[in-house]
User: Fold 2-dehydropantoate 2-reductase from Paractinoplanes atraurantiacus.
Amino acid sequence: MSISALVRLFTAHGRFPRGIVRPVKVAIIGGGAIGTVFAAVLHGAGHDVVLCARRSPAGGPRVDPLGPVRLPVLTDPAEARPADWVMVATKAYDVPGAAGWLGALVGPHTRVAVLRNGIDHAARLRPWLPSGTRVVPALIHLAVQTLSPGHVDWSFGDTVRVPADATDFAALFAGTPLRIVPSADFEQAAWRKLLLNLMVPSDPVIRALAPALLAEAVTTARAAGIPLPDEAITETIAYADGASTHHGRPTEHELIVGAVVRTAAQHGVDVPAARTVLALMRGMNSPLSLR
Assistant:
């Protein structure tokens, strides 16, 4: 069934057509565009979903083209209880702020998914989780944007890549518009997505460093055992977004460019362009530059 057909059925009935065997309790941390879309889709699949955010949007969450989504929104970790699945959809720089939610939501049997860009996003979350907690990293290939608080436009894209053993995560989305793809080459896919994300800065000085930055990232990936081909650079070089910087919001430079610098250091790879871009991005996103 097509996405448009699923959307029409959701709009008519508030649920996607194919039921699930056993609804589970799902908590989404982060009320931004990605968190709101995942909350809406999982709610439509029949799961017991709660959205954890800084504030509850007036009138409740809404995802176009699905429409209004009637689900609880928590604004205080003290109100939260352990869930079967916790999905972290905050930006990289917001992870410390999610610590209170993680402490309240993650129990001994909770599984955690990280809905975020990067190659080390799961590892960066572990310090805030109990030892032994299973963490599933996910690569999000959706075009979504926040129109107003709680109101999200999902314009296109339906693919989420996860590691090959994350079939239980994929099963949560059966019959929904999201296509969860367990991938044997997940690490390579994560590095390819990272290359695209490296092209986000719109600053012309940073963009001028793009060829060197991408070459360093590919060299670092290979040193870490990830066989990226030479054409990965040429396939990425024209990509540009810059949406986060244009809107005056902090970018995820520590998670994206910083990941290249950290991984390079671990494997003895010199990455002067990446170090330069990271320093420039830190300056662009300092409190003074964002005023």
